[in-house]
Design brief:
The complex is a heterodimer.
Chain A (H helix, E strand, L loop, with lengths): L1 H10 L4 H4 L13 E11 L2 E13 L2 E10 L2 E2 L2 E4 L2 E7 L2 E13 L8 E11 L3 E10 L2 E13 L4 E14 L2 E14 L2 E13 L8 E9 L1
Antiparallel strand pairs in A: 1-2, 1-14, 2-3, 3-4, 3-5, 5-7, 6-7, 7-8, 8-9, 9-10, 10-11, 11-12, 12-13, 13-14
Chain B lengths: L1 H18 L3 E7 L8 H8 L13 E4 L4 E5 L8 H10 L3 E8 L5 E5 L1
Helix pairs in contact in B: 2-3
The chains are: A mainly beta, B alpha+beta.
Amino acid sequence: MKGVLYLLLLVGACNTALAHQPVMDMAPRWNNGYGIQTRTEHANSTTTQWLEGVYTFKPSVRMTFKLPYADGEFGDAIVAVPIKHYKNAGGFTSSWGLTPSVAMPTGGGSDWDTGLSLSYSAETASLFQLYDVYTLGDKTGLDVNIGPVYADGNGSSLFTLWDVTAVDSASGQRILTGPVLMYFKRNVVVRFEYKMPLLDNDNEWDGDFISAGIGIVY
Amino acid sequence: MLRKITFLALLCAIFSGSLSAQNYVVSVHGIVCELCSLGVAKKLRKLSFIDPSKYDEGVKVDINNQLVYLAVREDAALDKTVLFDAIEAGGYQPIEIWAIDSAGEKLEVSQ
């Protein structure tokens, strides 16, 4: 267990917004698909509203953007180009993803940050798992989501996942963990997550993390 | 000889019946999530030979068995190449298609 924690700290992680891609890490994976989502995050006594979107050129190439809004101001917009390689086999699908990203100084300042993410996700009709190692600016991290899926066979499913997020940045390290609930009905997805600190040596972090969001794909 | 001809005629009748079937099933590798499979259904519903009056606008996805059910219009013929291209554009890998009767029983297999 200690070794695992040490490994998590080595790779680090930053906040949820940097690790995940719209819409809710899942869709659309079809040609010319698009989607939009909004999430409200509460952490460090600050509430941030994220507006996020995605366009899928083809299953292997998509483009995403994320724009934060907090304390009456827009923050730095992040544009990314997830490149995915899917493998389908019977009742199993998986993908490797490589995602270069750039954070633009839309929130003021003049610094442009670049990032890179390496992710792996695998899914059956009853189990979902996602692993994402990434870096952006001074932050490096690992995000893990894993848990069972309950599909009703009529267009809706409930994902009950467990999240582990590890963070390493200039201000220190932290590991957060907690449950994620995600539910979709046809093309509408809602997601709720709560994480509490398992380890906190981060000077700029304080307390729990809560996020709630809704997205739609076409 | 007469018995052989009768048998062949019967065989032809059976196969001609299967060819006129209007419902099909496609096995699709990896199609395990209803949200992610929306693209497959969306692409298939746009095909001219799909009958939107059956299933869910002509298409039904079974993620537990990785099957896609299709209803084809009576005045149209299913185009397998176009169909498989649409499924691939939806992000998944079609493997096999066969016709089914009104009870859902398999009528014919074609690779």
